[in-house]
Amino acid sequence: MAGAIRDLFRDHAEFRIGAVLVAFVLLLSALASFSPYPPESVYVVPPDVPPSLAYWFGTTSRGQDVFWELSVALRNTLLFGAVVAMISRVIALVIGLLSGYKGGWVDRALMSVNDTFIVIPLLPLLVLFYFVMRDRMSWLALALIMACFGWAYDARLIRSVAMSLKAREFTQTSLFSGMSTREILVQEHLPHVMPVVFSTAMNNMVWSIGLEVTLAVLGFTDVNRPTIGGMIYWANQHAAMVAGVWWWIAFPIAAVTMMFIGLFLLAVTANAYIDPRSRFRTIGGAF
Amino acid sequence: MCCIRAMRLIASALLLLLFLSAPPSYGQGLPQDIPRKELLILENPEGTIKNAGWFNIWAINAGSQSNGLQQVALDTLWYIDPEAGLDGAWDNSLAADKPQYNSDFTEMRVNLRKGIFWSDNVEFTADDVVATVMTQIMHPGMRFSAVMASNVASVEAPDRYTVVFKLKHPNSRFHTNFTVRWGAVWILPKHVFEKVDDPLRFNFNKPISLGAYELHSYDPNGKWYIWQLRRDWDRTTLARFGKPGPKYLAYIDPGPPDKRVILQLNHELDVIHDIAPEGMFALARQSKTTRAWFKGFPYGHPDPTLPAVIFNTQNDLFKNPDVRWALALLIDIKAVVMAAYRGACTISAIGVPPTGAHPETYHQPMEEWLKSFEIDTGKRKIRPYDPTIGKQIADMLRPSMGEQIPSDPKEVARAFGMGWWKPDPQAAQELLEKEGFAKRNGAWTTPDGRLFSIRVMVEGDLRPVMTRAGTMIVQLWKQAGIDAKIDLAQGTLPTRRAAGDFDTLIGWSVETWGGHQDLSYFLDSWHSQFVAEPGKSQPLRNWQRWSSPALDKIIEEIRTVDFDDPRSIELGKEYIKLAVKEMPTIPLMAYTVFTAMDQTYWTGFPTAENPYTNPVPNWGNSRYMFVRLKPAS
Amino acid sequence: MHAQAVPDVPSEAVPPMLSVRDLRTYYRANRLGIKREVKAVDGISLTVRRGEIYGLAGESGSGKSTLLNCVAGAIRPPMEIVGGDIDFAFLSGYGGLHRAPPAEVARVRWRHLSYIMQGSMNVLNPLRRLRSVFVDFAYPHVGGTRQQFERQLHAHLARLNLDRSVLSAYPHELSGGMRQRATVALATVCRPDLIIADEPTTALDVLVQKEVLGMIRGIQREMGSSVLLVTHDMGVHAHVSDRLGIMYAGHLVEEAGTAEIFRNPLHPYTKHLISSLPRIGDDAPRCGLGGAPPNLADPPLGCRFHPRCPLAMKVCSGEAPAMLETAPGHRVACFAYNQSGGA
Amino acid sequence: MLRIASYEAADCGDPGSFLRHGGALMSGYFAFLLRRLGQFGLVLFIGINVAYVITHASPIDPVEQSISAVTSFGNTAPDAVEQMRSALRELYGLGATPLDQYRLFWSRILRADFGPSLSAFPTPVSTLIGRALPWTAGLLAVSTIIAWGLGNLLGGLAGYYQKSRTLRLMGVVAIGLHPIPYYILALLLLIVFGYLWPVLPIAGGSAMNLPQSLTMEFVASVLQHAILPALSLILIGVGSWFIGMRSLVSNIVTEDYVVYAELAGVRPWRILSSYVMRNAMAPQLTGLAMSLGGIFNGAVITEKVFGYPGLGSLLVDAVYAGDYGLVLGVTTISIVAVSAGVLAIDLLYPLLDPRVKVN
Lengths: 287, 633, 343, 359
Prior knowledge:
heterotetramer; A: mainly alpha; D: mainly alpha; two-stranded antiparallel sheet
């Protein structure tokens, strides 16, 4: 693993750029634990100070240091995206593999459920959830709900891969050798769909974080917990754009964009490295 | 080769974009075919109107009210201006003079003006007033149906210009239903409604106008409404003050705050209804032509409404005045003012908004009493009032704002308010301990041993400054060891407020006429007869669900004295003292509305120096603004 | 197994259809951080005469396919032609398709040089009916109206005993053999001068294999085209090839008429290849060759076969043997024959 | 269910069969169609019911919202409010038992009638939706299709001509724009083109005081007003299509049939269009159908930022107002549209990819 990363780093400019971007963002978010102020407190520093030596990224109209605020926000946002991605990957994997492998009525039933999740419009639902759950709607609860709605497309994708795997010889071999469904799925099929899981995880993070920003801008999240969306929400509340407090918006945008581009580049290069096609070729033995 | 083809495609797409944006005849948000010089563009704070083609204001629905309909097309008997007024705060509009009650306030007689016409050439008469009342009584579900039904025994028109109301029970304030501060019972055209089968399902489109303007056109998607000065504007009540300046009025939905600022900087929005303080500061900085109520800081117009920390007094935790007081003493009002308004607001320690006629009537006379007011913490007696807090705020702002901050004590008091409660954590602690609360490891627990948790409900971006105030208060309480949290209710706030589904909320349960010292506008609804049982819906405005026999007595006496009787001022002071002792809500400041007026095309807007009316453009009395507006040279 | 009799002596007057001179093709990769140079084809010279089927045999990884790709001009990184020339009767002076101007390449492709690819499963666009593929590939070279082309197509299919309904089929609707026959039809429809066939019958069952080979042979005879046929299957070569070249680890190690090679294989590797062919009546498994083909990124010095060679001598590990003619039309690269001056 | 043979299309043709005959295929397709339609109905039923349950679980009381709108408006006596409450409850039909309300709901849905809006009583929900839908559908359909077309074209080219510097640059731009939260990009566009260089309208769907009729003037105004919202949607949308198409194409160009076609000297444009792009199209078309189905959700942020009329703000307003009639109206349309998109793609897939077997 370490060797692979070293190779990637040496050979791919994209990987280098991606790694540097992500490392920067991770570093920034790791600094969150060292914030000299409680992240939810306001008016702890003079408001509206432009970026300077004392306040590298300036201060907000709420008297927060943008640097520390951003650091905490990045950590929270990354955590949120990662949790959504992780949980939804697990659901997508279980449903996708099971549906693709089992076929028949299991497949039909699971795909009906799957399609239902695809067709239900998410935004009004999340807003209603917010109204019902109120302050019990913590970021974790929101992440859980989003994860419950963020797997359906990818489950379909995994299902189609699983169906092709099922037709492979090695599946039959495993079946004849007396492996259970669970064993076949976990030991034989799972490794083949991991590249798909890996690349969809990135998209899923973009999606969930984007939706979090949307919800926060509309005020449907816990806006006191610093997140990228929460920062934008408060910046809007204080008309930061037109008030000339550009650093309040510019730095979060820059950071979140860096994060996404970095993650994307990593995902792309890593994907090329473990190209599923070459894996299928070698493992499938059809060529 | 293919690349080149693709490039060409993109290039042509871009060209197409440029081409489309090229025709210069299209301005950005300006109406077509209307000379800009004859047009005043105002913000409709209701935003995009879902049910845009609905003008029947007497039926409840998603039609707009502040789209010009109530400001320029409808009319009613009287107006009370929150400011000085064109001709005094009181204005007889459709009525020729003040209401005449009989001695026991069971009958009200109204004389109407003559020569007032609907826009379809039908004369306005007493029949219209009678129809307004009777139509609503006959159709429960109409906007003013319940009020009329519960008050009016009969209504008659002895002649074309006189209306006599017989009331079911004595009510010295019945006329206020027909008196606009913000809105009131609008008079409907009998000759239109008598032909309608079901007035609840009638859209009143196109509306027949009784005001000086009539509907010109509107957007079916509810983004804009354009009104046009009536040819016969001189046959409306506004004609008494001269010819309105603008020939056309456009009430538009300009979108989020950023865009309001951009539009005004581009001179495409003459009057912004309200904006975040920072937006106001940005406009003041960047636009030479923008004017607000105050020429400089604090800019905004203080509304006669009083944002406060409203306790749910039916909640066990907040039943006790000592607890409420302790929480008040933990608030640093300067921090709240800075957080909410960046200092740009007027504070008030007492339950009356520090605006209009009130400072002279209530705040100044009560100052001495406040200074000597004592509370007993159980260990000692303290005098919590600090008369210098208004001045302290001004002093705090002076270094960064400089000249803009007045130094004359009177002006300081008018702009920033007078005194407030001095933060006193020690006294707060004593008060809480007196009531059995305990502080362990820096965290307060209630008498029954649970964590002392308070949710502060705010509305979110619908009321940004209140949200900010709430956030600050939460922080202050948290620092004192209370488990406080903000509770962002967004659109659920009205439902939850009515249901009593909150610990505390930042909102107002106090609002007044502004231009008149009578407090019945809100106080009557604080009578314990209206307090709902826990779990039931609370009618407005006693959101704190506070009942007090002493207050009931005050209210009952107010009901028996005349609107203009000086005795009602004394009773008002009684209420203030009671509210200070009991602290059912913690009054914070006047709700400041940052109305920004662009003088590029029009001049003569109402301001603090020339306070002939309030500038907030969604109020029914903002019509008085139009007769003073002159085209800019 | 038998080989067909073929004239061993080339007619000197007519230039060969294809001549490859000292071709060296390397894969230069920088994969996983290690710079590697795989000498897949390392100094091969051969000629394909007019009207003959030239067979190329060798294990997988011997560089056969690379050689074909070079001839076909399908050079993609990391593959790189480092040296040598490839000349065709219909295109000379450039030293290979990869150096020829695009217009020339376009003129030559399919009209003069066509290709039957390894594994017909994926060589036909799965989303296109065969008719469209024929049109895409051949129509621009044939010209005329579409009706004429269609008639020509029908005639061609008839000649190959193919039903014209295949034209309306998608590739996946055809059986493997059908698909490969269609591919042959596709490769021959323009009556090209040279057909490159890369493992055309691998993965087909024996009966179909025979049919397809017969078809290639038949149409080649009829049109007088040359075929460069690559397969590891010596049985196939014995069946159709006129002459045969044996490749090992990027080198051509032996070349002769097919009958000659089968009768008198010289190179130990050739002997091994031929002896591994199954014969009826075999009961004991014949012993195989020890060791594995060399790693071409780091080939053994000297003769590349020497680590596995039963006849290996000292000299074999020191220098590479040259290709020398031991009999007319029979060349071999082995010190065993070099030193003794031919067996 | 469809079987999509993905990478190894080769496995599909079983060696024994020659050309399968149309008749068998058709009857198989018919059975598949029936089953698929059944599933479509099931998904609709479940989806709409979930939406019904959730909207009715909303803590917002439409009556209370109406009353608060009314009472904040004037000096209304408290005792009158209780009367108003019961009058409105009756008017809105909230007096009926939950079961009756549910029954009424379905009997209306089946007649494609969503009843009256509670917050815009008595205006029918369908009228409100009908007013907003053309704007939303127009803007979103056009920008989705443009983003799709542009993203696929550029992504296809970039996957095919991997060395082109221009295309690489475009890739960087498309990918760089793609992850920017939409709200921010929209706001930036607004500030650039509405404030710093004010050349484009930043509010509304068409110019004020221009009758909504099919005149050149109106159409031009609509187009002009749509530029910024559409541009923001396209800029964000292109990226994901670009990325998807590029990776699909860069896989396809190594396929044997592409190499073979190149060896055959098939013209590059033909290879690109019929061999590369065409073969990458099926998954992209699936995505397009789903995106097009999704446009009936509206675009809340677009509408908020650009003040564009549409379903998104109608929906959020309806949620705020507790107007479940309206919420259900919009969500039902959206559920139907997305399911129909999925259904259409499933039914059309055999046409897009003949390898797909109906079983």
